[in-house]
Amino acid sequence: MEPKKMLRVGSSPFVHSGHTIDQAMRDVFLALLPAVAASIWFFRLQAVAIILTAVISAVAAEYAVQKIRRIPVTIGDWSAALTGLLLGLVVPPSLPLWLVVIGSVSAIVIAKQLFGGLGNNLFNPALVGRAILVASWPVYMTTWTAPYEAVSMATPLSKLNTYVAGISTSATTDAYVVLPHVEDLLLGSVAGSLGETSALALLLGGLFLIWRGHIDWKIPVLYIGTVFGLSLVFSQGLSPLWYASYQVLSGGLMLGAFFMATDWVTSPITRRGRIIYALGLGILTFLIRRGGGYPEGVLYSILLMNMATPLIDRLTKGRIFGAVKNNG
Asked: Does the pLDDT of residue 235 top 80, yes or no?
């Protein structure tokens, strides 16, 4: 009589979330649709062309690299399409399409496939693609247009920095810069990257991901909360609540907090680690916005904390059950 199997030996993970990779990726794609719709509403055909170009380029790049490497083609898992969509949402609406292609291909080839593919990348691929574009073509990547029309306009964070600088130097020409209203930031009728203008659309998508159990609420809540709290304390002589609200609703904070900082591969796996990670993101974003030459700090904050993720996981991992603590 064959003995009953009581023990199963295998490698982790041993507990399944109930979600497959393609299901999770599709849900994130779905969560981004409000931001996509807002970008198309405000920037019309420019948004459509950039988003389609970014997605198609990313999928094509992944297919080509996997064919060259002679490994199974996995474009059906939606991860490449999601990377392309995120890349399309973090670039200006006036960006030439050939640069969109370069950004998407760089995100897939350099930040993802060179590290071994999905699950092995150290950095968020879409942000690496954007960082390459910012470093190589800074003029294109800092040229913004107003919603509904192709007229150059500064982003809310740039205007805010000019406003604060004008007050601190008593320069009347700068002190009376016209700033967008907070409700404009919430709805999205301001200049900026395609997906970062409407904070409300991003918030809806982020809440959907939390409800579906795809992301840990601690990261976006603590990230946004840290920026909000520091802005309340260091409001530069402005109304603390207004200044903090402006910092939270403008720029790429909402997009980064819900859709990039929470990336399953590049964020910590431990609970304590996620708290440290989120606090670090908030502090770095605030410091870069306040003291850096670039008005936005989300991009480099996330990339820097991606780099620190392995160390954070190592320092916050729990003790193995039954193991003896090494005091040496």
From this structure: yes
